[in-house]
């Protein structure tokens, strides 16, 4: 599919044809576009008084999430940084009456640069005094003297 004809060139074609009375063949030579395109532009101007088709539908699919929905999602993420996709989906459904798939939410979060959330939580049982004491006691041993096991071992 060829690139769309720029609006400035479309306007120039109208001036050449209607004001300067140039024939279509000369307009094709000057503009470098096909005769069919020139005739289409002239027909649009004659039918609608404009250089573009006012009845043409927008390209692509209509967005499922509006800008207000995206602001709502941003607010959710600010209030709850560790929220899951299904929780966002449920909040959108209940509070905004918007039904979207998890894949759509994931893509929108990527567009909002909200992926790979890095949320660090300190352990609730962490005790700095106890930790410092343990580090002091363990520092008397050399690393070759230590053996560590987990529950699986």
In short:
The chain has 153 residues and is mainly alpha-helical. It has helices at 7-19, 24-31, 35-48, 67-79, 85-96, 102-111, 128-138.
Characteristics:
single chain, 153 residues, mainly alpha, 7 helices, 53% helix, elongated
Structure explained in plain terms:
The protein has 153 residues and is an all-alpha fold. The chain contains seven helices and no strands. It has helices at 7-19, 24-31, 35-48, 67-79, 85-96, 102-111, 128-138. Helix 1 (7-19) packs across helix 3. It is elongated and about 100 Å long. The two termini are 64 Å apart. The mean pLDDT is 87.
What level of helicity do the residues show?
Answer: 40-55%
Q: Sheet with the most strands?
A: none
Strand content: under 5%
- Uncertain segments are none
Shape: elongated
Overall pLDDT metric: 87
- Judged by helices, strands and strand pairing, the structural class is mainly alpha
Order of helices and strands: HHHHHHH
Distance between the termini: 64 Å
Can you count the helices? 7
Q: Compute the gyration radius: what is it?
A: 32 Å
Strand segment count:
0
Quaternary organisation of the protein chains? single chain
Question: How is this fold's topology laid out?
Answer:
Layout: H1 7-19, H2 24-31, H3 35-48, H4 67-79, H5 85-96, H6 102-111, H7 128-138
Helix pairs in contact: 1-3
């Amino acid at each position: 599919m060829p690139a769309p004809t720029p609006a400035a060139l479309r306007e120039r074609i109208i001036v050449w044809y209607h004001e300067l009375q140039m024939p279509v063949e000369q307009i094709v030579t000057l503009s470098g576009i096909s005769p069919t395109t020139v005739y289409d532009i002239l027909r649009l101007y004659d039918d609608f008084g404009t250089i573009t088709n006012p009845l043409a539908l927008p390209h692509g699919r209509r967005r499922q999430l509006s800008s207000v929905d995206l602001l709502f999602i941003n607010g959710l993420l600010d209030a709850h940084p560790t929220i899951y996709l299904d929780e966002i989906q449920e909040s959108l459904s209940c509070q905004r009456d918007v039904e979207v798939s998890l894949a759509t939410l994931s893509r929108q979060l990527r567009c909002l640069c909200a992926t790979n959330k890095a949320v660090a939580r300190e352990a609730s049982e962490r005790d700095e005094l106890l930790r410092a004491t343990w580090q002091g006691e363990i520092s008397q041993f050399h690393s070759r003297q230590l053996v560590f096991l987990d529950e699986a071992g």
